[in-house]
Write a structure and sequence with these properties.
8 strands; EC 2.3.-.-; acyltransferase; globular; GNAT_dom; eight-stranded mixed sheet
Length: 191
């Protein structure tokens, strides 16, 4: 199961108490640039585009669109989520049973909307989609260990820290930073 195939098969949009989640479209690039270009946001992101055109080209690429959901509050995009379905590691003769059984998650929330529980609400809904609707067995997420807001969110939604790495990640500041990895299994998810 590929990410684009799996996500496309779900009924969209999905609504929570206060938010709407839906697959990103090319037209969402500028709305996400508005918060992704902020210094307090892009310091933690894999890509820190310095110009809207570079962000637009990356965001509108088929690979990015296939795994990106946007978070809307009252019709305004307030964040985005990555759902990247992956194969689990398996021994060769049974590798087919490990295809498309887990997902890596990532998220970005506009700081203007922080502190209201929107990211927690959105990630909880994505976990529901992963476990209930997609039938995945495991979900993971990683961050720089200094990104306390991100790893605290992982803990709030029930993920457990499985990995703490020491100075393994080169940050664009030129410093090697520690990393943290979290996971949740379907049979641990409390819904």
């Amino acid at each position: 199961m590929t990410t684009s195939t799996a996500l496309a098969a779900l009924p969209w949009p999905v609504h929570t108490d206060r938010l709407t989640l839906r697959p990103a479209t090319a037209d969402d690039a500028d709305a996400t640039w508005r918060f992704r270009q902020r210094a307090d946001v892009c310091r933690w992101l894999t890509r820190a585009h310095t110009a809207p055109d570079a962000h637009r080209a990356w965001f509108q690429a088929p690979d990015t669109l296939a795994r990106t959901l946007v978070i809307e509050r009252g019709g305004t995009i307030v964040g985005d989520l990555m759902v990247k379905i992956e194969d689990a590691w398996a021994q060769d003769e049974i590798a087919g049973r490990a295809r498309g059984v887990q997902a890596e998650l990532g998220w970005v929330l506009d700081p203007e909307y922080a502190g209201h529980g929107y990211a927690t609400e959105a990630v909880r809904e994505v976990l529901r989609l992963c476990f209930k609707d997609l039938g995945l067995r495991r979900v993971t997420a990683v961050c720089f260990a200094d990104n306390e807001a991100s790893w605290r969110l992982m803990e709030r939604v029930g993920m457990r820290r499985e990995l703490y790495t020491v100075r393994d990640s080169l940050h664009r500041s030129g410093q090697w930073l520690d990393g943290a990895g979290y996971a949740l299994l379907a049979d641990e998810w409390t819904g």
